[in-house]
Amino acid sequence: MTCSGQPSGPTQQHAYARGPRITAVETAIPSDVMPGLLLLRIHTDAGRVDCEEVVGHGETYYIPEAASAVLHDWMAQRLLGADATAIESHWRFLYERMTAFGGIGAELRALSAVDLALWDILGQLTKQPVWRLLGGPVRDAVPVYNSCGGPMYGVRSAVSGKQAAGWPGHGDPGQPGPLEDNWACINAPGDLAEELLDEGFTAMKLWAFDAVYRESGGLRISSADMAHGVAPFEAIRDRVGDRMDVMLDGHGLFCQTAALDIAHAMQPFRPLWMEDVLRPDSIRAMTEFRRGAGVPIAVSEMLVTREQYRQALDGDAADYVMIDPTWVGGISESRRIAELAQLYNIPVLMHDCTGPLTLMSGLNIAGAVPCVSYQECVRAHIATVYPRLIDTTVVVDAGHICLNDRPGIGARWQPSLFSPETPGYRISRA
Ligand SMILES: [Mg+2]
Hints:
Structural class: alpha/beta
Bound molecules: magnesium ion
Shape: globular
Strand order of the largest sheet: 4-5-6-7-8-9-10-11
Number of domains: 2
Number of helices: 16
CATH architecture of the largest domain: Alpha-Beta Barrel
Low-confidence stretches: none
Strand content: 15-25%
Mean pLDDT: 93
């Protein structure tokens, strides 16, 4: 019961009225920067704290128009006029309502964006970074590795009007040039490894079998394709020895036999982990794959519910757990999944490639949850894409990103991105 004697709880329309009210939900799609991204701002009546308007910032990635529709046409009914600090109440209410109708796609992505923005608001109101509100710090700086995408990964469709290499998640071969790590990791892997070591990175993830899939599919790997796929790892070991940890991301493109063949061929190169070489549709198949692989297995940014992660952990399918906070339900649910992995003593990897607040969220979680092992980053995005989106400069130093002391999530969208004239812009007001 509340003080007024009314029943309370997440199923109530507006359960609490102790914090500032949400006055508007505003979204934009940065089509000319990263067209798969949905930017969210949640406005409140809190006014200014330390000369800055209290505004929550969130994001999600993939089919942004669908997530935007969920936010404005459905979630706004719950959020507008409600207490902006009732994070868990809103999360649970929206989760319960969406899952009553099978909603873990665009709905869960929209909820993720909302959750990020509400944590950002709470941080601004309390003048604390989110990692501190979550109980951190558990470290001063977060280990990061470089995922070998290029500056146009996730961006190219903004230029050409279509994906360069098919659908999102199928990789991009890139081209010669600065920060073209996707091209360099295949065509000049030793040079790239040395360059990354010089920058302080000690781990790099390659998408070396994406081209094999594009050429030959994912059912079987010929000897020639296998040699092509492992060649970059061989070159890196030859050039820099064990000074660089290497990982392989298969983007879920291969069936069991092909995935096991890849794993066995990768064993001599001692990858830190292999990720999504087998598509993670079946926990039993994932468990069989892990048992036969002979290398550590990371599972998986493609899982999205806590129950899927629990099954993977309980089924001995994972040596590492990979989480994307803007897909699984935001900072709140990522924290819960990471704590679940902690129970099994399985290290956690925070995903990126999908937007600057995904990166910021992962860093906040890593600042508060001890079992987070690595934060993924794409140095090409940090250098060329993210500065066009956020007002915070991300600095990788000696293979780490320091915890950000700025109140909230650690970054704000560039205001120019939210123009009513921009295609895809929407605002819903209380
Ligand atoms: Mg991945």
